[in-house]
Each structure stands twice: as C-alpha cells, then as structure tokens.
Amino acid sequence: MRKKIAVDVAIVGGGIIGCATAWYLTQRGLSVALFEKGTVAGEQSGRNSGFVRKQGRDEREMPLIKRSLDLWRDIDKQIEGETGFTVAGNLAVAGDEAKLAAMHSWLAVAKEFGVGSEILTNGRLQDVCPRIRRGFLGALYTPTDARAEPELAAPAIAAALRRKGAEVHENCHVQELELSGGRVTGLVTEKFDVKARTVVVAAGLWSYIFLKRYGVFVPQSDLKISVGRTAPFDHGMTIPSWTPDVLVRPRHDGGLTIALGMTRAADFELTSRSLRVAGRFLPTYLMNRRGVSIGVNGRFFENNRWSSAYLSSDPARYSEIRVPHVPPNVAELEKGTRFARTDFQFDPPIRLVDSWACRVDLTPDGIPVIGETLPGLVVATGMSGHGFGLSLGVGDSVAELIDRGSTTIALDAFDPGRFRHRYFAAPQNVL
User: Is the pLDDT of residue 1 over 80?
Assistant: First the structure.
C-alpha cells in the first residue's frame, strides 16, 4: 500500500533552493514535504565554490542577494546548525583594461544599492590581500561579501527541517504532477501519493525535463564546473579571491577550495537539449566565448539516457540519476593549483586531496526563473551559477509568494514567461 501525504506545499528538489524554500515556509507555519531523487545537496548545491557575494552581479539580482546576505547572517542561529557562513569579503582581480573598466562601471550599481565596493590598485591591493602578486591592474573588492560551505549548508537546513517536523524524503524521485480542473493539486513519487495546495519545482538542471511535459518552457543549458580542495595548511588567506586564472577560497576546515578563474574555460559538453535551445544562448556565448570550451563526447548520449530514466516510472532505472557522477576536469584543476601558487605566492606546491565537478544550470539571460507557471505550481530554477549565494533570499521570497500571493521584493525580472516574449537575451553581470 502506497503511503499518502497531505501538506500545504510539496517541493521537488533537495538542493539549497528547495531546502531554503522549505525552511522559510515552515517559519510561516505552513506544512511542507520535500522530495529529492538522490541526496540533499548531492549535485551543484553541494559542489560549488561557496561564494556568497553581491559584487559584480546583474542589477536585477541585487535586491535578492542583499536580502539573502541578511538571512545568511542569522541562518546558523535559526537552524541551530553549521553552514560555514563567514563574512570575509570578496576580491575579483581584473585581467585586462576592459575588465577593469567594467568593474569601474559596476560601481554605479553598487552605489545605487548601498553596497560598499571599491576598486583596488597598486599598493592598496597588496594591503587588502598581502599574498597576491604584484603586476595586476586592479581588482573589485567588497568587504561585506561572504563565503559558506556548500557541503554543509543545505544538509544543515534539511536537518533543521526534520527537527521542526517537516518531511524531507531522500532517494524519492518525483514521477509526475497531479492536476485537477487545470490546477496542480499534488504529485506522485516512487513511494508516495502527495496532496498539496502548492507544488514548488526547484530541481535545478532537471527542471527543464520535468516541466516541459506540462507545457512549461524554461530554456536551460549547463556548464560543467570543476572544483578541488587542499588539506588544511597555513595558507594565510582570509578573503575569497579570484584572478583571471584561478579561484581561491579559504575553507571552514583550514584548507583552500580551488576552482577556475574568471577567464579559464568551463566545459560546455553538447547534448541534444543544449542544441534545442542553442539559438537563445548565442548572445551569451559571444559575450563569454573565452570562458567556454565546447566539447562533443559521451555526455551527448549520457544525457539522453539520463533524461529517459528521469521520465521513467520504473525505479530500477533511477540508480544512475540519483546522484549523477560528473568527473572533474583534472587537467584544468592541476593548472589551477599552479596558478594559485603563482598568483598568491604560496611557498609549497598546492596539492589537491579531493576534486569533484557539478553541472550548473544556465538561462539565456543569466538570471533565475521564479514565479507561478500554472495554478498551484511555482518554479524556482535557472540560478545560473548564482544560486548558492542567492538561495536564502530566493527561498524567503518564494515562501512569501505562496503564503501571501505577493512579494516584498519584486520578482518581475525573473518571470518564467519572459522567454515567450524575447528570444535573445544576454546576462548583464560583470562577474
């Protein structure tokens, strides 16, 4: 006999967006059940670089990220858990005059939103980050930005949800929505039949596949981002920093997180899905072609196999998609460790003790998709690599939308229907 569940809100996806939404819904007194096909934060939510930053963002995201930073400051106390959140600033180093000019231009956005960012040049850059080598033109610096630990944050929120009595189900794939009279009234999982007043789809890269069956179109593509970590050592770094060639973030455990810098090429592995939406991403690609390495490999057929398994009603086919294996680009990470040693003047060689990768879902305009798409169905996806930092602000806003029918922060720019009205769109962020 299949178990039946009845809640105010059912959530598809146990990443940081789904967990944050569930948390703020429970804070509003609503009953919640969250369903994750694999493990909480098993994909990009637990495998990103851990930046929580305002600087360099698209102007349309600024109200959300400011709200999110406010919420991050209190989250450990609220959940009685550890996310690794630390206000440590963020430093982005320009590789050429064009990037430095763009950073200068972005200061107008910072001023509009009351963010104390500044451009550092010459000795001032070394004063703020003594480890950085000389020779860089300058950098954008925001001392009120922060970092957190991706492998800690969403699981800590999920643990708090369970303590509060919310249902958090891992290894529980959502197979389909239930509809009645044109309204979404629940969902069917491999284990449960669920009745809900509202369903939230926060399934990251899987959202496109899940939603298209119901006539909801969210153009998503993806990039593979490779990340590694060192063992703890006396590195002397305090500020999460990225140069054109390498990203270096101090970790909660005393080591460093190492990832690609601003101009190192992330892996874009072609799939049938990415080809279907490729035209919409043309302006984005032209703006960022130095930062993308296009490849045709086994990912093309793997994606077709995974999509078929995802849409299947046979749980025997889910093992490969529970927590998909994404191999890191080891060669690029090895280059990253060499750049880290050069750019930040570490004496010993930098050695990684672990490495991993994730697939980051992208929208053509580089900003999220947030809003109601069908009666009773709210979507929060397409975070475009910004979701970890934005997560609490997004979760809080989605909870407010469901509870009140409106939001304090305007979500018009993230309207899921915007792609019906505009084919071409490009990101407006500086970083």
Answer: no
